[in-house]
Amino acid sequence: MVEFVKSLGKGSGGSVNLIRVTKPDGSNPYYHAVKSSNYYDCLHEEFQILSKLRDCPGIVQTFGASLSRGVNDQGSRVYNMSMELVEV
After folding, report:
1. InterPro entries recorded for this chain (predicted)?
2. Half-sphere exposure (CA, 13 Å, Cβ side) for 29?
3. Suppose 5 and one of 18, 25, 77, 80 were both cysteines; which one would form an S-S bond, judging by CB atoms 3.0 to 4.6 Å apart?
């Protein structure tokens, strides 16, 4: 089960939200960040760069092989990139 927890930030290119994922067996949930944007080209370019840097220390990691599509609260199409949650 995927559940929105809270907004982590918003800028001109989109927003980042904290997501909790609970496994079907009910074991410990895990958290990740999801960056959402209406601008496919910009988010896709960022995803490609981060994918090339996968497994490099100090670089946020992405999950999945591509962006996902969704719809925001206003009914507009958005593109999502799942990333590891980095806490400072």
Report:
1. Kinase-like_dom_sf (IPR011009)
2. 12
3. 18
The residue assigned the tokens 């927003």 is: 15
The DSSP letter of residue 47 is H
51 — phi, psi (to 5°)?
Answer: -65, -40
Q: What is the pLDDT along the chain (88 residues), one digit of tens a residue?
A: 889 999 999 998 899 999 999 988 878 999 999 999 999 999 999 999 999 999 999 999 999 889 999 988 888 899 999 999 988 7
Compute the distance between CA of residue 22 and CA of residue 5 in angstroms, rounded to an integer: 12
CB 83 within 8 A of CB 32: yes
Q: Residue 53 and residue 47: Cα distance in Å, rounded?
A: 10
